[in-house]
Structures are given as C-alpha cells and as structure tokens.
Amino acid sequence: MKKATATLLLIFLISCGSDSAPEPPVTPSEALNEFLTGASFQVIDLDAQPVDTIYITNDMILSEDLYLDDQVNLSRPTQIIPFQDYLILNGFMSANVIAIDPQTGVPAFRIGGEGRGPGEFIQPFEIMSDGESLYIHDTSLKRFSRFDYNFQFQENFPFEPLSGSPNAVKAVMNSDYIVYENHLSSGLFSVSENPTILEVATISKPDSVVKHLMPRIIPSGMQPGAYNRVHFTMSHDNRLAAVYAGLPYLFLFDQFEHLNTVQFQTSYIDSVNNPSLTPFPPRGNDGERVSSLYISQLYLPNGELLLQTRGGIFRFRIGDDGHARLLANYYLKEKGYEGTGIRAIRGITYNPNDPLEIFSVGWEQIYKFRLPEI
Q1: Signed CA dihedral, 198, 34, 272, 300: sign only
Q2: Which superfamily does 31-370 belong to?
Q3: Does the N terminus or the C terminus of the chain have fewer Cβ atoms within 10 A?
C-alpha cells in the first residue's frame, strides 16, 4: 500500500512539474525583459526533433536562368510571392520585377519597367499583394506602385517610412493590413519618438498607423544596434510571427496582440558567437556585427508556420492561444549531390491552390517541393 501511494505521489509530482510554465530569462536588455514577461512563455528544443530530408530532383528546380530577353533578367532573385496564376519575383539590386509560370519556371512578362515614370522602378525591393492588387515599393523613389488583377498599372503613391532591403523582407500584406519595419525607428539613431520597430496600418490608409509592435531592445544611439533588426510574416487572418534576427525567441501575435513567446534551444544557436545584449556607446564608425539566426519565415493558411534557419526549415502548428508545437525539421538536399544541403534560400512562399506546395528562391535558382501530410 505504501509503495502504491508513493508511486501515485511520484506520478502526481511529475505531472505537476510538466504543466508548470517556464520563466522567461533575464537579459541585459530592460526592454526585452519587459516584452518577454508580457505574454505566455514556452521553450522548444529544436534539436529534439528528428531531421527529415527532402530531396530536390532536377524537375523540382524550376529555373537557373531567369532571362525574359537580352535586356531583362534576374540573376539573383530575392523575394517571391504568388499573384494570380504566376509567381512574382524581384532581384538583388535590380530594377526588374518578373512574373514566371509556377509549373515551368519560364519567365512570362515583366511588370512595370526601369525608370522614374508611372509604374517604373529604380529599386523595387518590396513586393506584396492584398489579393486583388499587386503592390511594389521602390526604396529609391520612396513610393508604392499598384497594379491591378491584370497587371495593369493603376497608381503611384508616396510612402517614406518603409525603407526596403535587398537582403530581407521589410513589409508584408494581407487583404486588410500592411505591416512594415519603420526605418525611422529601426536604425542606430531613432528619428521616431515611438520606441517600436514594426508598424501596422490598413490598406486603405497605409500612412495611418493603428498598432506599434516589437520594441527597440537596444536604445537609440547605442550598440549593438543590429539586435533591433526583425524578420516577420503575417497570415491571411492577421496572425503575425516575428523574431529579432540575432536572438532565439519567436514572438506570436493574433490580431496584433502578443499571445506567446517561444524560446528556442539548439546547438546551432549556441554556436553563433553573437555579442552581449548589454548596450554600449558606438566605437568609431564601425557597427557591432550581429549574425542573423533566421533566413525566412512563412505562415501557411492552415495555421502552420515555417521558420527557416541555417540549421533547417522548422514546421510548427500554432494554436489559437499562440502556443507552438514543433511538427518537423526539414533538410533540403539536391538529389545526387554529395555536398551539403541547400542553404542559400532567400525567399519562400506557397501555392494558394495547394498550400503544401512550397516555392523558394536561392541566389540563382527557384525550387519547388512539397511538404509531407501531417
């Protein structure tokens, strides 16, 4: 009897311990500490998930040379989104935006053109869609160009807070909202008085901010300011997932309210030798380097989230309460290639008619692969 009672007590204590929520860590950043304690918190060990290899065969590489003609090409595509029956791509430091056939990878036509006139671009670094129109933001001209359902130019309108980048997505959009990184607050010195990095605005009034998200975790004018860089993705139903590029935390929002924070544990993140979060004044003209832990992220229509690191593509299911469950870890590898796996993915999206069909772009290639059913 005593043995049975002791066994039951042990089971009870173990079950109570497994239900207790972990406490967020205390970091050298006061702003980050406040943010971490503002929602529920969980820890996920990424190394505990077995790795599944997805082999990329030749027929899954859609294109290596995106030449529309002798004058128009994308040698290094950086962003990719679906619009109508095409995939829309821009290029690294290029004025070209091209629509391609998603089945063959063959370039179909160019959108807009190079220049400063209506519907023309100098640096079209951000491409996005609200489902009805295609929006292309030009960092150099500081404006949006809007194209209709048939790719016909409709209007230009100025938009200065967004400063696009050839290396990272700085804005995302759905049918109702645009979320963008405000360069007035995200740089080393904040021009904006609001100490947050992401802004939320409606499509109808993109210059009127309705929500501020993701606080600056390094104060204005202090180093290492690169910790203020964020990556983010938004779903069709206003779920948002965001990360600080150099930190092992995933912040999950619903209707732009912070629901949950996930801390990642993995040997890969531990091996990255990033500087301390302790703020310090700039030293000369050189910034403090912070290596990004993430490459891209994507919300799927079924509530799943893909988060790509240099250690793999992690697949999560996000509950209504923001709780994340790790489903899989994928390693992409070209079939027959003896070297390392595919690491040079820069952008990722899905087929709206088949959300488990994934398209991604590398420096010179477009890949198509399918996620397994779970």
Answers
A1: negative
A2: TolB, C-terminal domain (2.120.10.30)
A3: N
